[in-house]
Amino acid sequence: MELGKMGADQFLNLALLFLAVIILFKFIFRKAKNLPPGPRALPVIGHLHLIKKPMHKTMTNFAEKYGDVIMLKFGVRNMVVVSSPKTAEECFTKNDIIFANRNETVSGKLLNYNCTTIGLSSYGDYWRNLRRIAALEILSQNRLALFTSIRQEEVHFIMKELYEECKDLPVKVILKSKLSDLSLNIMMRMIAGKRYCGKDVTTEEARQFLEVIQEMLEFHGIVNLEDFIPVFKFVDLKGLKKKMMVLMKKIDGLLQNLVDEHHKRRNGSSKIVDDLSSSRKKRTFIDIMLTSQESEPEFLTDQTIKAITLSLLAGGTETTASTLEWAMSLLLNNPEAIKKAQDEIEEYVGHDRLLDENDLPKLTYLNNIITETLRLYPPIPLLLPHKSVEDCTISGYNVPKGSMLMVNIWKIQRDPELWDEPDKFKPERFDGKSGDGYKYLPFGAGRRACPGSNLGKRVAALTLGSLLQCFEWDKIGKVVDMTEESGMTMPKLKPLEVMCRPRKVAVQAFSA
């Protein structure tokens, strides 16, 4: 028995010694390679066991302990996380081309036409063509100006719906559903030329679009082990891949219907009528792409058009609605800001008409509210991961080829060394400036920055200004719950419920 016990003790001691040697070897190897610091990793899984929700707060805790550049091991992949303006600038200037690529992921392949959407496609000729079409043909200043009336009409429609609900007495409103309907209608009218939802026109197709976009964003927020540990390629944990394939079939069917409708219209066999501006037809985004298809048929296939359309819908609906919900939540917790914004609108717009996009450049405080909301609650708190195509250095550390890069803009935009009272809602901090270099990155930076940022800010400012001009708002309870939902994006966990009653300008505009 004693010999047996001694043998077990010796085995344990040898095992501990072996483990200590491995840890020491890895430490020496990291130092020799001058890799960024990070917490201790486990064999095979690396640091995956340390990732807790919400991920941006986990990464913030790591940064506070190990520094502004850290390296984690996600299975077989290196993950570099940067959390300061200096390191972010280094990534998006000196190393911008090196980090211009994306990682191929299960969700990217199964939910984004094999990673061919604007946000997830690999850097190269194909991506440059996508970006050219988006930047010049669809989201340019001139093109957006042509669709100004669409955005204003949709905002006025949602204001009128709200007025009809609360004209007789204050009512409780769940704002997110209305903001989601508004965002979808604006995007769908620009993309396809027709309204999809609202009090009079809600369709099953509209509900399907909203549902599939929300579900797609949820899937992108799930850590899929197959992306980091290759052996899981042969195991469909929780049936995730099957669910994604079913979802993508729905998405593709909805998008193909849009493209087919436009093909038929161009061939003269049917006609799509813009319900709200039939007297003044505008070419839709799909029309624009189908015209380009005639000169670039090999590149701009129907699938490419669907991939671009999916990018526009995913980037321009739920993220805009969430930003507006966060903005209203912040304002309700800071009622003095509501009064200041309403006074500004009354000064520059008056009491006799509804504000429009031409008023927005004059409404400094209103724009500051949007800017401050995006600082506190960026749509994607950890920018979409980039991938290095060659070895490089960040802040003096060596970063190996193939490493994933994440930029923790949530930490950067709340860093007390960069911002005065960083967790406080202070729109006036942006007086005279729209952001401050790499301290403020809600839409990313460099080659892979969001091409739709200008559209998103226009819609958000016009909608928020109209809500404040037309209605008085009161929170339910002492304070609005500001808990975040975990995932790739950062919507509110609890939908905003608020009391709404019309102001004089809404009565004048909508009572006739």
TrEMBL record:
<keyword id="KW-0472">Membrane</keyword>
<dbReference type="InterPro" id="IPR001128">
    <property type="entry name" value="Cyt_P450"/>
</dbReference>
<dbReference type="InterPro" id="IPR036396">
    <property type="entry name" value="Cyt_P450_sf"/>
</dbReference>
<dbReference type="GO" id="GO:0046872">
    <property type="term" value="F:metal ion binding"/>
</dbReference>
<dbReference type="InterPro" id="IPR017972">
    <property type="entry name" value="Cyt_P450_CS"/>
</dbReference>
<dbReference type="GO" id="GO:0016020">
    <property type="term" value="C:membrane"/>
</dbReference>
<keyword id="KW-0349">Heme</keyword>
<keyword id="KW-1133">Transmembrane helix</keyword>
<keyword id="KW-0812">Transmembrane</keyword>
<keyword id="KW-0479">Metal-binding</keyword>
<protein>
    <recommendedName>
        <fullName>Cytochrome P450</fullName>
    </recommendedName>
</protein>
<dbReference type="GO" id="GO:0004497">
    <property type="term" value="F:monooxygenase activity"/>
</dbReference>
<keyword id="KW-0503">Monooxygenase</keyword>
<dbReference type="Pfam" id="PF00067">
    <property type="entry name" value="p450"/>
</dbReference>
<feature type="transmembrane region" description="Helical">
    <location>
        <begin position="12"/>
        <end position="29"/>
    </location>
</feature>
<dbReference type="InterPro" id="IPR050651">
    <property type="entry name" value="Plant_Cytochrome_P450_Monoox"/>
</dbReference>
<comment type="similarity">
    <text>Belongs to the cytochrome P450 family.</text>
</comment>
<feature type="binding site" description="axial binding residue">
    <location>
        <position position="450"/>
    </location>
    <ligand>
        <name>heme</name>
    </ligand>
</feature>
<keyword id="KW-0408">Iron</keyword>
<dbReference type="InterPro" id="IPR002401">
    <property type="entry name" value="Cyt_P450_E_grp-I"/>
</dbReference>
<keyword id="KW-0560">Oxidoreductase</keyword>
